[in-house]
Amino acid sequence: MAELSIIIITWNNENEIVSCVESIKKSLAGKENIDAELIIIDNNSSDNTFKVLENIDFPKLQVYKNEINTGFTKAVNQGIKYSSGKVIFLLNPDTQLMENSISEMYCFLTKNQDYGACAPRLLNEDGKTQYSIRNFPDYLSMYFEFTQLSCLFSKSYFFGKWKMEYFDYEQDADVPQPMAAALMIKRGVFEKVNFMDDRFIMFFNDVDLCKNIIENGYKIRYIKDTKIIHKKGVSIFKDRVRMIKTWNHDCIEYFKKHKNNFLLLTWLRVSLKITEIIRIIYYKLFYEK
User: Fold this and answer.
1) What is the extent of the structural domain holding 96?
2) CA 51, CA 15: separation in Å to the nearest integer?
3) If DSSP codes are grouped into helix, strand and coil, which group holds residue 224?
């Protein structure tokens, strides 16, 4: 049995996973009061990720290789099934933890009964803060995305309400939805919301999860002094076209689940299909080698 279960899902992350695990070990160094296990699920990587994983050194380690890529959400639920911790820490392989980040989040969550989850400040590799806190999307916010009004007025509480670029990252705060690149959740809360909904293949699972956590009466805390470097989009850019299509699929699934309206959903489908074609053509013209 462990007190904390750290779950990482890999897919073609041979260049990132070792530094991620080493940063976990450094973050836990001297924290004998936190009994942690590390569970890594490899989603059928086509590179040398699994060979790298076989040489990972961690006191309590479980490594599994899926024969097919089941998608991020199903792999997370798989990892939770194998875990024993009272607290679950979902962590992307393209992250590097800074000193005390795990212990500060863990201590906060275990000492505050009203909170179901907490999240750190995510940093780019240059040290700048990432925009990682969001509101729950609605049809109006999607309209602002399609018309680029959310980009033109990104700091606006009205036009930019989904991506919340106006959020003050210098203050601890209760938040709607932090990015799940690094998200710590109580096991009991995970069980209460019935884990991650696997209708979402890779995206919007964290949006749905946070919405369920809050609707079940728990709060989510952003903790400014817990800092984690996140190389945003490493896996996404390895198969960009498929990821664009998957994002659109998961977006539709989210709105079907939480804001099902036939006319508005039809509008959203059409709008996403148009932008999907444009984004794929743009990618193939300017980025695909």
Assistant:
1) 4-136+167-231
2) 12
3) strand
